Amino acid sequence: MLVGGAQVLAVVPASVLMVAAWDRLPEELATRFAFDGSVSDRMSRPVMLVAMLGLGLVLALALGILNSPLWGVRVSTWDMPRVHVAFSLALAGFLGVILFGVVASNLDGQATSISLTYLLSAVGAAVVLGGLAALLVRASATAPPAEQGPVMPIAAGEQVSWSRPVSAPWMTGLGLVLLVAGPLVGWGFGWVAGGSVILAGVAVALLSRASVIVDRRGVTVTFTALRWPRKVIGLAEIETASAETVAPSEFGGWGYRIVPGASGLVLRRGAALVLTRPSGRRFVVTVDDAQTAASVVNGLRAR
Q1: Domain 162-168+208-302 has what CATH class?
Q2: Which residues cross the membrane (predicted)?
Q3: Which residues, at least 6 apart from 291, have a Cβ–Cβ distance to it below 8 Å?
Q4: Any idea where the domains of the chain sit in the sequence?
């Protein structure tokens, strides 16, 4: 609630100022500024107001989902719930001051530049709010020590393998939407922006489906029908294997993620195969029947 609500509150001051001083604002507001402070883009008053409110709602929804209270086991060496709250409040502080500064700069005539004071104030607000959140938010439990999971008895010379597909249909859909939207974005905003959207769509689609294989070579995670990219962790690189419940919020999102102390493919909240290396770092992949996968890994290591 705090995380998502902060983004909505961030756009309130600028929105209130805009409505209260509607007649003092030009038909088109200067809304984007180059590094030297000069104006590089403009937006009409109604579009600007709707865009601000929409931005607040979208950020609130996205961060609210990401910071869902349905946390799984802690795998990162960082306190990710605290990091998420600090980041969200810092973003709200920065966004709120910048938007207010943009509207205020356009009062009584279109702005020709934005004051450095607003930029410095935005950075200061982000630092203060983020720092306070990091200090005041209660610390979550420390990451539990790695424990040996179940062990499947495997005789010498016996061939055993286990495999499961893992996918996130919504990510596949998002990738397709981005691929379709890319040319439209390119037509409206330039082909650099359009190309970036297309590349993002390809990346999201590629990382939305994978297969997990456990055999004598170790654990292999292969993305998409192209069989690439591919991640292989040999049995000698694994200290223990276990099945845990993990959440995307612990990794800062969905897809292939890297956080302090851990990495992995996280496409949903739920059961995951957790591999702990001798260094203590963990590799995680969310997959059905993770308990069996862990027992096969431990059995292959033990024989």
Answers
A1: mainly beta
A2: 6-25, 46-65, 85-104, 116-137, 184-207
A3: 149, 150, 243, 271
A4: 2-136, 162-168+208-302
